[in-house]
Specification:
alpha+beta, about 35% helix, 12 helices, FAD/NAD(P)-binding domain
Length: about 425
């Protein structure tokens, strides 16, 4: 029987199972195998510099079918776009971070990252339990019991010391364990698509805060850009369904002409946004990770980096726990995980939700004061601190973020 069972597929479940396969414990992975759908060919993931080091150490980065797009510059603007000379001179985005020595982050298509993770985990010390879902989660004799149902209606049970729930924002494990979450009202929806820019993006990522919500463009190959446009629910649905030419014009008007005319190059997806906060992502013999433990606003592109931090920190804890001769589900594991994830998750949750509220949903006078603060930040020493944090590994120090496996790890098969 396994010591640890990771529940959940997708980017977080695969990555977490692969990461924990380097612990000294036996790991199994429960997921439903689903082919990569059209949405994953449109959606992208932003991986921080520290996250890239982690994925390289795990052997995933080397398996990416196409090179990720580096982000060398981050440009931020507040308020309605100015169309014309001022924008063309490059002054529309007043707050800018730039690092020519090392990219701050990388943009990877979800489908590309999923394929790399699937290939790499096949070489890992993980017992796959494919095409199964968790029907029930109980605790008996200090062990976790998972009741499973397969795709043909058959049932099975797995017992282990620790369950790591990576089963998403609607986590069955979280509900079964009675872990409370606080969800903000669903007032915004993101329109997600791929667009092309008339002018070269020069590996810059852009974020403009508007009264209706932020609009973000992340650079990709061939001058494509990944669009995440946050809007009120009904407005997002309208832009998803409208004529392509009308969408192109509206998108360009909202963003401004820093990159010239923007042209839709894919289907349009809508993604309901509902940030959630969980004070304690643990219960007896259970740890939650990824969206099961925290859902933040996508404006900073930090969601997957938090999941990487969850797995990297947990691996360090487990290696230390094994060295002390303790089981993977020991109370100290839960306590250490809760304490070591509190700072980064809390900071990112408050920052992303606060920025969205401050710049996008406050009265004009308040947002103007916030805009003044943005200009002051652009000239202050705090600007470099923000850049360091965004590069990852600062609020959540872990061996994998430094590009190494912890002492006591188990070699891959």
């Amino acid at each position: 029987m396994p010591d640890i069972v990771v529940v959940g597929g997708g980017l977080t479940g695969l990555m977490t199972a692969l990461t924990l396969s380097h612990s000294p414990y036996q790991v199994a992975h429960i997921q439903r195998h689903q082919p990569i759908d059209g949405g994953e060919t449109i959606r992208t993931t932003t991986v921080s510099a520290a996250g890239k080091r982690m994925l390289e150490t795990l052997g995933v980065w080397q398996r990416l079918a196409t090179p990720p797009t580096p982000i060398q510059t981050l440009k931020v603007a507040d308020g309605e776009a100015t169309i014309g000379t001022r924008a063309r001179r490059g002054k529309a985005f007043g707050l800018e971070w730039q690092d020519r020595d090392e990219p701050m982050a990388f943009v990877v298509p979800n489908a590309t990252l999923l394929s790399a993770l699937e290939r790499q985990i096949q070489a890992a010390a993980v017992t796959p339990l494919i095409d199964r879902t968790v029907a029930d989660f109980t605790i008996a004799n200090n062990r976790a019991n998972l009741s499973l149902i397969d795709d043909k209606g058959g049932t099975d049970e797995v017992t282990c010391d620790l369950v790591v729930g990576c089963d998403g924002r609607n986590s069955t494990l979280r509900k079964s364990a009675g872990i409370r979450q606080h969800a903000l009202p669903h007032k915004q929806t993101a329109v997600v698509a791929l667009i092309s820019a008339e002018r070269p993006h020069q590996n810059a990522a852009f974020q403009r805060f508007l009264g209706s919500g932020p609009i973000a463009l992340m650079p990709m190959d061939n001058n494509l850009m990944s669009l995440v446009w946050t809007l009120p629910k009904q407005e997002a649905l309208r832009y998803q369904a409208c004529d392509v030419n009308a969408f192109d014009k509206a998108c360009t008007k909202a963003f401004g002409d820093e990159l010239g005319f923007l042209t839709l190059q894919s289907d349009r997806l809508v993604w309901p946004l509902q940030p959630t906060f969980i004070a304690n992502p643990t219960a007896d013999n259970l740890i939650l990770a990824g969206d099961a433990a925290h859902v933040i606003h996508p404006l900073a592109g930090q969601g997957y980096n938090l999941a990487l931090g969850d797995a990297a920190v947990l691996l360090d804890i487990l290696c230390d726990t094994f060295a002390r001769g303790l089981p993977a589900g020991h109370l100290s594991v839960l306590t250490d995980y809760r304490q070591k994830r509190r700072l980064e998750v809390g900071a990112m949750s408050l920052t992303t939700t606060g920025l969205d509220a401050l710049f996008s949903r406050m009265p004009t006078g308040v947002s103007k004061i916030a805009g003044l603060g943005m200009n002051l930040l652009n000239r202050s020493p705090a600007k470099s601190a923000f850049s360091t944090i965004a590069s990852g590994g600062t609020l959540a120090p872990a061996n994998l973020f430094a590009g190494r496996l912890p002492q006591g790890y188990r070699h891959r098969k």
